């Protein structure tokens, strides 16, 4: 997806490392989004809309994280406000 769009050649081990990093962050992200939902009655599950909303937010987070990671670590580009200030 992103790799094809930017015509990048990335090692399979690197892809696995990035994927594992994203998986390691998943529980925390899900918990953050669930905690933002209105407080529900004890024992009530989440609606299909609430679940779908969380899934979409996580998908956006993943795409954004991969794009930023590639931009900084593969292409070497940074936003102007992210330049080293040493």
Describe what you observe in this structure:
- It holds the Pfam family GerPC.
- The structure is a single chain.
- The chain has one domain.
- It is built from 3 helices and no strands.
- The chain has helices at residues 2-5, 12-35, 48-74.
Write the layout of secondary structure elements.
Elements (H helix, E strand, L loop, with lengths): L1 H4 L6 H24 L12 H27 L12
Outline of this structure?
By secondary structure, the chain is mainly α. The protein has three helices and no strands.
Structural domain tally = 1
Low-confidence stretches: none
| Alpha-carbon Rg, integer | 17 Å
Termini gap: 35 Å
Average residue pLDDT: 80
Helix-strand sequence: HHH
> Judging from the principal axes of the Cα atoms, what is the shape?
elongated
Percent strand: under 5%
| Major sheet description | none
Helix/strand-derived category reads: mainly alpha
Specify the helix fraction band. Answer: 55-70%
Count the helices. How many? 3
Number of separate strands: 0
Pfam families: GerPC
Quick tags:
about 90 residues, mainly alpha, 3 helices, about 65% helix, elongated
């Amino acid at each position: 997806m992103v790799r094809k769009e930017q015509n990048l050649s990335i090692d399979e081990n690197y892809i696995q490392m990035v994927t594992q990093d994203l998986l390691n962050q998943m529980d925390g992200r899900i918990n953050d989004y669930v905690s933002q939902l209105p407080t529900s009655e004890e024992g009530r599950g989440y609606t299909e809309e609430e679940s779908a909303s969380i899934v979409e937010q996580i998908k956006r987070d993943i795409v954004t994280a991969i794009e930023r990671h590639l931009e900084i670590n593969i292409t070497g580009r940074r936003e102007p406000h992210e330049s080293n200030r040493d």
